[in-house]
Write a structure and sequence with these properties.
The protein has 179 residues and is an alpha/beta fold. Helices cover 25% and strands 30% of the residues.
Length: 179
């Protein structure tokens, strides 16, 4: 099982100006990359606030929304609201036949999966903008330890947009999914 964080950052390390998680500043190239990787995976996990910012389920993908109150929402064929713990959730998704899960945001969800060592890859788009804002990708105070990454590849999406792909060798995904 591959579990990837896919995020876009400004040059100064922000994912949003404020807690609305609006990413109106990302490039068409980044949005195209996000669509390609999430469509290929077939499943994407969002936090409720990030999902509400998007406003609707992404087509041709299972959209899993982590929320403390799933009973307040209506799940459909490609939209699942849940408060499952990350390990339980990825097991359920794996049993549905998915081999790749994308964590699409936001900050709380990225931190939760990294804290639980349930991330194998990070795809970090870097956009050429310095944002006036305050929302960083992670709440590092919640992490248990430093997390070492290995550079897998560097992709140039356009003249100005890069994607840095890291792998995380120390994760629990193999132990959860080995026979």
């Amino acid at each position: 099982m591959k579990i990837s964080i896919v995020a876009v950052n400004s040059v100064n390390g922000l994912i949003s100006r404020d807690s609305d998680y609006d990413v109106d500043w990302s490039s068409p190239d980044d949005r195209k990359f996000f669509k390609k990787i999430t469509t290929s995976a077939g499943v994407v996990i969002f936090g409720r606030r990030t999902f509400e910012t998007i406003g609707k389920p992404l087509p041709k993908r299972l959209n899993v929304i982590l929320t403390r109150t799933p009973e307040k929402f209506h799940s459909t064929e490609n939209l699942l609201f849940t408060n499952d713990e990350p390990e339980i959730l990825i097991s359920k998704i794996g049993r549905l036949g998915f081999k790749h899960i994308v964590i699409g945001g936001g900050r709380e969800i990225y931190t939760l999966f990294l804290k639980n060592k349930l991330v194998t890859d990070i795809y970090l788009s870097i956009e050429p903008i310095i944002l006036k804002g305050k929302v960083t990708m992670l709440n590092v105070e919640e992490l248990n330890n430093d997390i070492r990454l290995e550079l897998e590849e560097l992709l140039k999406l356009s003249k100005n947009t890069l994607v840095v792909h890291y792998t995380i060798p120390e994760n629990r995904v193999r132990e959860l999914f080995s026979p």
